Amino acid sequence: MTRPDDMRAQAPVVLELRDVDKHFGPVHANRSVSLSLRRGSVHAILGENGAGKSTLMNILFGVLTPDSGEIRIHGEPRTFAAPKDAIAAGIGMVFQHFGLVPELSALDNISLGAEQTSWGVVDRDVARAKVEDLCRELQVEIPLERRVSALTVSQQQRVEILKALYRGAQILILDEPTALLAPQEREGLFDAVKRLQRTGVSVLFITHKLDEVELLADDVTVIRHGAVVAEHRVGTVTQAELVADMVGSSTVALSRTERVPLGVAMAVRDLSAVHPTSSSLRGVSLELRSGEITGVVGIDGHGHQLLCEVLAGVRPPAGGELSLFGARQRRWGRARAMASDVAFVPEDRLSAGVAKHLSIAENLVANRLGDPRFTRFRFMRRQAVRRHARELIEQFDVRCRDELQPVGSLSGGNVQKVVLARELSTSPRVVVVCEPTRGLDVAAIASVHSRLAAAADAGAAVVLQSSDLDEVLAVVNRIVVFREGEVVADVPNGDDVDAKVLGALMLGARLAEAA
Amino acid sequence: MYLASVLELATPLVLAALGCLLTVRAGVDNIGIEGMMLGGAFAGAAVSTTVFGPWGGLAVAAAAGLALALVLAWSHLSLGADFVLAGIAVNLLAAGGTVTLLFAINKSKGQGADDLASDPLPTVNLSFLDDVPVLNALADQSPITWATILLAPVFVYLYFHSKPGIWIRAVGGNAPAVVEAGISPTRVKWLAMSLSGVFAGIAGAQLSLATTHTFVRDMTQGRGFIALAAVYLGLRHPVGTIIAATAFGACQALSTLLQVRTTIPTDPLAAFPYVVTVIALGVAGLRSLRRRSLAAA
Asked: How many beta-carbon pairs below 8 A join chains A and B?
């Protein structure tokens, strides 16, 4: 494959980020990020969810302002107080969830805010002519008079792109543009992007999908934990190397301890399940043993997250068997799981893990309202609830004003500690945790890890789902790799396993090739 | 006779409903429209008997509606009050305020406490239509009714083809998209609410300067809420809204007609338009519920 690479490598830099830094409270979302985008090139920003890609793009589009650092457009430093400043500087953004008005026609959406009027009446012919020109250039067809709500997802995306171009965007930011597209639609999008590129438009392309980088991008910048960890020219780097960049190389000291697993706590046989945005689980058989931490990993959406939801009882299995300590469970749901001492720490802790507006004390008893220690005649025993909360706050080192503070006002790490305190203080027999340290600072991460270790040492079967392979390698005893909804590897975590091997397995290599 | 009465009674509902439509589409369910109508009705009546005359009354009615709308917009958009609570406050302010002012005016004139005579607007007299069937309904209507009939198509056109029309619909549809396009949703909402106040004030003037020749306390009798109902029953479309508001006007006219012509007890008849409103909204609600469950399946 030949690319008109060399020409583009010489092209002038249209957009440059220098040492852009952004904190949200204790979370360092972007660490001194520098980046340069050349005219007419497609530059991929690759990183796992939570790596800080979206923060970076929001800074570029004027939605967020950086704490420090500089944005340069054509070499000139610019500050964006609002999206309209970014638009004026020639930046167009295509959000993952499109910023279109469903009730208005495609044409009205494209020209919204930039309408031409005569005698107070919007002159749609002018806009239509201009948009039709753009459509011809991109070779896309959009029914411009149709309401956006009646368009397909990929048509809506085109409308969003046209909206940016209509305002004269020379730099287009595409935020996970293929997330909602079917494979065929993806081809169409890529063709359109390539044609745009030929007209001199530069594209920043945010993704966590490796194959898309290879298909579309000229350059790739890999971001992890908010910092740039690598930059490559596409074509000079293998997918395995990119995975290693993305999820971390195993340079951190391993803190895991050898554990001798006890009996089987939970087992699934030939399990299947479906999910709207993930590969379906097919024929998954797995045993989870007491006293062991099992890591489940995969590329985002390949079924490992779905498995956790099924184990925790928040999503029903579609088929297969699930048994707990040898007893087959026929009606598995969250209530049943809670009654069977299956603790769950969901990925989205703030919306699924806690009730934001309630106090820490109330959240800490939310899973044991039937307990006579905390309720009498269905009324809460306030003193007992508060005393219990004070104990757990102390034990789990939750940093807060007092036990009556609403959980929503805590920092991310402390919210997570509240969730862990609630879930782990009931001495669960099975613990399912998803992305427990995403967005947390170093101290909070260490505390979460020691809690999980303590739970396993106390005899619980712990399942850890994390997109941070460093974390998985550091904490777990055994790793199960998912690909396209199936288990492709189930290996003990040892010195022969590292991020590169896991990355290759996640991409579909066989165990023998990967090792 | 009946048709003339339909036009007369539908006028304030159509005006208020179109005003409401603008705020609803901008994302604010303006229940304060009731108070704005009442304020307009009172101000119109009070000013009509002064040197400014009924036309001055009409202008002040519009201004009074606008003033109340600005109070609501300020508390909701600038101070962040919930629009339902702020709307209720505006309604209470209008109800209490008009009674207080009514009392103050009547005391100085030594009249009864509950009403205030107005100097009505002259009707548009087209006596040559008197003998034409159907069209004779138009023979003796108020200028407000005529303006409503003539300007409704203009309203519908501008609603779809003017910048403010498009922007108002965009704000209610997806405010973040509007921000991205460099438009301030708050300013668009200010505009929509101001317009609704003017519309409601004029609607009130129709009640006190045309349909009747007095201002009576609480004379709007829930017409503002019926207008809001008409917006939803009209599927938030201007033509639908006009049709729904006119249909409610027809119910009111029927109720009046039956009270005059038959021996059916007047209380249930007076309740009839409101019962129709509730049933209509129930049907509309069921329909949208079904559509949503279909979409979810």
From this structure: 62
